[in-house]
Amino acid sequence: MKITELGAFEELVLITAVVLGNEAYTVTIAKELETHTGKLMSISSIHTTLYRLEKKGFLISKMGGATSERGGRQKRLFECTEKGMDALEAAKALRASLWKLIPKTS
Fold first, then answer.
1. Which of 33, 93, 95, 102 places its Cα 20 to 30 Å from the Cα of 6?
2. What is the mean pLDDT of residues 23-36?
3. Residue pair 56/81 in contact by the 8 Å Cβ criterion
4. Share of the chain above pLDDT 90, in %
5. Left (φ > 0), alpha (ψ -120 to 50) or beta: where does 4 sit?
6. C-beta of residue 72 within 8 angstroms of C-beta of residue 83
């Protein structure tokens, strides 16, 4: 079995980007992760992880439209690649196979 190339936090960020679809950018990913983990997410840690995932070929990014609510600035949107989905599937399969090894308790 091939070992996944995703760290645990990278996996969470990548899954969240997939879930958010066309709305996947740094701030929305941080907010979504905060909602589900109950932990405050630093924008810089999300930002760094997104660029690392892009460098690995798991994400691609493009600039979105500028909005008045952002002071006319554009936001960088992220989209999962086929390689990214393959990495998520591999991580899911690895975790499932390891969970099956845990002895059942009464």
1. 102
2. 96
3. no
4. 80
5. beta
6. no
Percent with pLDDT over 70 in the chain: 91
What pLDDT, on a 0 to 100 scale, did the predictor assign at position 69?
Answer: 66
Question: For residue 106, is it within any domain?
Answer: no
Alpha-carbon distance of 76 to 65, in angstroms, equals 9
Could you tell me the CATH number of the domain that includes residue 65?
Answer: 1.10.10.10
Statement: residue 16 has pLDDT above 70:
yes
Q: Which residue has the tokens 């936090």?
A: 9
Average pLDDT value over all residues in the chain: 91
Q: Which residues of 9-31 are buried (b: 16+ CB within 10 A; e: fewer)?
A: ebbbbbbbbbebeeebbbebbbe
Domain range enclosing 40? 8-99
Terminal Cα-to-Cα distance of the chain (whole angstroms): 31
Is 1 inside any structural domain?
no
